[in-house]
């Protein structure tokens, strides 16, 4: 398994991760809901539905990958732990689009915060969209924007919106 983690070739049954991404994002909200600092991120992708065996974009849509990650708060802002499903569509052999949906648990303020978002609930919905470029079979770069909020299921609902870049390594 150590050889697989370090990029060695192994059968699909021996592989733990489909892809690992590392990057950073920043808040793109305005006003009092803006967050300070940058947010280092890591996301792991798993392929339980056979995305790799999809032969066209329709098959790719029917075989989402599962993601699990974190966005680490700096400057006293919220850290997020998120999971969900990700759909990746190849636009060309190098360019791809991606969208994800799931949930997040965060460490941010629920209400009464004068600086930064008031999030209302500890558990939020989490969604993202992105566009990426594959440099090689293994390395890619993704620009994404991610949003987390409670869909007005509790109050307040300022939400968190962050944009950034991630470098991915596909095993």
Task: Break the fold down into its secondary structure elements and pairings.
Layout: H1 2-5, E1 19-27, E2 38-46, H2 57-62, E3 65-71, E4 80-90, E5 95-106, E6 123-134, E7 139-149, E8 160-170
Antiparallel strand pairs: 1-2, 1-8, 2-3, 3-4, 4-5, 5-6, 6-7, 7-8
Can you give a write-up of this model?
This protein is mainly beta and 171 residues long. The protein has two helices and eight strands, in the order αββαββββββ. The protein has helices at 2-5, 57-62; strands spanning 19-27, 38-46, 65-71, 80-90, 95-106, 123-134, 139-149, 160-170. Strands 1-2-3-4-5-6-7-8 form an eight-stranded antiparallel beta barrel. The longest helix has 6 residues, at 57-62. It starts with a helix and ends with a strand. The model is unreliable at 1-12 (pLDDT under 50).
Distance from first to last alpha carbon: 12 Å
What low-confidence regions span 5 or more consecutive residues with pLDDT below 50? 1-12
What's the average pLDDT? 90
Spatial order of the strands forming the largest sheet: 1-2-3-4-5-6-7-8
Helix content: under 10%
What structural category do the secondary elements indicate?
Answer: mainly beta
How many strand segments?
8
Query: Strand portion, in percent?
Result: over 45%
Order of helices and strands: HEEHEEEEEE
Biggest beta-sheet profile: 8 strands, antiparallel, barrel
Shape: elongated
Cα Rg? 17 Å
Alpha plus pi helix count: 2
């Amino acid at each position: 398994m150590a050889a697989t983690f370090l990029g060695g070739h192994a059968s699909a049954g021996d592989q733990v991760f489909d892809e690992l991404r590392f990057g950073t994002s920043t808040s793109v909200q305005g006003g009092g809901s803006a967050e300070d600092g940058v947010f280092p991120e890591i996301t792991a992708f798993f392929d339980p539905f056979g995305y790799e065996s999809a032969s066209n974009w329709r098959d790719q849509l029917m075989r989402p990958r599962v993601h699990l990650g974190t966005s680490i708060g700096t400057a006293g802002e919220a850290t997020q732990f998120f999971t969900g499903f990700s759909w990746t569509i190849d636009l060309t052999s190098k360019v791809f689009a991606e969208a994800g949906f799931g949930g997040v648990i965060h460490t941010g303020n629920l209400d009464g915060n004068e600086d930064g978002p008031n999030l209302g609930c500890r558990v939020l919905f989490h969604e993202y969209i992105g566009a990426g470029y594959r440099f090689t079979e293994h390395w890619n770069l993704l620009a994404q924007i991610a949003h987390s909020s409670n869909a007005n299921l509790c109050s307040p609902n300022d939400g968190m919106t962050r944009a950034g870049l991630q470098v991915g390594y596909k095993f």
